[in-house]
Amino acid sequence: MRPDEPAPWTPPRTEPGQPRQVRRILKLFRPYRGRLAVVGLLVGAASLVSVVTPFLLKEILDTAIPEGRTGLLSLLALGMILSAVLTSVFGVLQTLISTTVGQRVMHDLRTAVYGRLQRMSLAFFTRTRTGEVQSRIANDIGGMQATVTSTATSLVSNLTSVVATIVAMVALDWRLTVVSLLLLPLFVWISRRVGEERKKITTQRQKQMAVMAATVTESLSVSGIVLGRTMGRADSLTKSFAEESEGLVDLEVRSNMAGRWRMAVISIVMAAMPAFIYWTAGLALQFGGPAVSIGTLVAFVSLQQGLFRPTVSLLSTGVQIQTSLALFQRIFEYLDLPIDITEPERPIHLDQVKGEVRFENVAFQYDDKSGPILDGIDITVPAGGSLAVVGPTGAGKSTFSHLVPRLYDVTGGRVTLDGVDVRDLDFDTLARAIGVVSQETYLFHASVADNLRFAKPDATDEELSAAATAAQIHDHIASLPDGYDTVVGERGHRFSGGEKQRLAIARTILRDPPVLILDEATSALDTRTERAVQEAIDALSANRTTLTIAHRLSTIRGADQIVVLDSGRAVERGTHEELLEQGGRYAALVHRDAQLEPTRS
């Protein structure tokens, strides 16, 4: 880890109480309470209709058939058919609405997490593996799909069915009902234990999936493939991935088998309950107890069998909810991340930005545990002027450049744009005013035109051509078979380093910012390519305030002022000629640069 980088990010160690977490989950459904009310009505109607069938069956067995009443038999049979039809229709409508609500909640969660991450400071992303972020959005939220789309409705549906069925059973025979429900508390206790066990395993499983996602993202990117093959580590990486996958296999098996035998015992006992009821009714009759009619007994067993499915489902739903709490907790960790960089309550908007940048006694450090990265920086760059910052690795140069667009916020002093603290400006003003071209050019896996229009979505083809011409890349693009429709490939790997840099410059020209930050934009290029890119940079820098973080000193000799950073402090400043005359650190850097120059050509 470099001296000026923050420590790796770890999730906050907060364990929200389960009642609070449940309330927070329920809050996600609040915008859809109208639709959920409709689902509740459908569930209630379906439950009531379904318990009517055993009573119709009782009348058929005790009255219609023994008394030979064909008309009543036909009416009761038609009622049973109608009950089945209504139950099915209500179920389909209930599933449609509940699934729609669930998917909307999933959408809200994904959007909320993505939006939260978009507002995080650069420090968070330098400390977090990309695969970890992707896993939270894809795997964790995806793993909650069953819960938010069907579990909530299943809970209400099964609970309503259980209550309605028990009421109907009591109406038929309260004594048999008591016998049927004796073991229910034990079943509830078992399901809670199983749920707690699966919740712990699910937390471990999701962490392992995040590790695997990070490994895949890093090792199967274009850069990762190139590095792995050229270093002869392809087999080693495969072996490492296999070990991580093996760990996931064990967790998946444990997750699926957790409490499986205990739940199987519940299923066996409940499936055997009809035989127990027949046996109990027979013994009661034999020992002089109250007689139970055949119709009542059959209807009661039918209700009990109807009770079996929702009860087991209800217990399983409880297990599923407890398991999902682990996923919700991981999502809430991201939603609860503190946002370091925010707009003030009343941000200042600048319609016209001249471009004066000023550092006033600026200090910066990542946290209380790390030392200062910058300390006591006082620099003024007039509108249209140029500043170059040089210094050894770890001197704080890149951090210095990140303070102007608020990728980081100062921890002491202030940075101003046209006399206004950048922390008081709205994000739109900062985005319009400041353009950044860095050493690590990022291009999307899209066409050249789409990559350029990322800076200006409504740019015309003529504006694209003009920007590319200014960046000295138009002729190359035009020579490609698909021209501006050419797909650049993952991270722009179909283009050379110099070509990618010029595409980035064209993109910035299209945005036309009054302040330009060049963060070692040519340090990775050979001398010949550097000259071409430097010409494009010169065209871009004209009439703009330019801050250049320089690695090669030959590119900054014409800067209005040069500042040498060392250990976070400005130890020298002046023009190229003035600093050479001083014979200090800048002169030593120029001498070293001159010795290395032949090796770069």
UniProtKB/TrEMBL annotation:
The chain crosses the membrane at residues 36-57, 72-97, 146-168, 174-191, 263-281. Residues 1-14 have a biased composition (Pro residues). It is found in: Cell inner membrane. GO terms for cellular component: plasma membrane. Residues 357-592 form the ABC transporter domain. InterPro entries: AAA+_ATPase, ABC1_TM_dom, ABC1_TM_sf, ABC_transporter-like_ATP-bd, ABC_transporter-like_CS, P-loop_NTPase, Type_1_exporter. CDD domains: ABC_6TM_exporter_like (cd18550). Its main location: membrane. Belongs to the ABC transporter superfamily. Siderophore-Fe(3+) uptake transporter (SIUT) (TC 3.A.1.21) family. This is ABC transporter ATP-binding protein.
